[in-house]
Automatic annotation (TrEMBL):
This is Selenoprotein B, glycine/betaine/sarcosine/D-proline reductase. NCBIfam families: various_sel_PB. InterPro entries: Various_sel_PB. Keywords: Oxidoreductase. GO terms for molecular function: oxidoreductase activity, acting on X-H and Y-H to form an X-Y bond, with a disulfide as acceptor.
């Protein structure tokens, strides 16, 4: 599905924690997330820390949308 959306001219970024799966389905722009049950948060941390985690990953995804790439790329995030 990702490939078809990109062929139509829409940039796509996938946020996921299973990077090998994202690569195998052909996603070109991949942003790692935190965990399967909580992709953009960590309930073991404070709400303030969770907000920082979410904001950072969304900012990385938005930056990825604007970049031209030639091959599959996993964008770096802070841990």
């Amino acid at each position: 599905m990702v490939k078809e959306v990109e062929k139509a001219g829409f940039p796509v970024v996938i946020l996921c924690n299973l990077i090998p799966v994202a690569k195998s389905v052909g996603a070109n722009k991949i942003v790692p997330t935190i965990s399967i049950p909580y992709p953009l948060g960590d309930p073991a941390t404070s709400q303030e820390e969770q907000l920082k985690l979410r904001r950072h990953r969304v900012e990385v995804a938005l930056d990825a949308l604007a970049q031209d790439i030639e091959e599959q790329t996993v964008f770096k995030v802070k841990i």
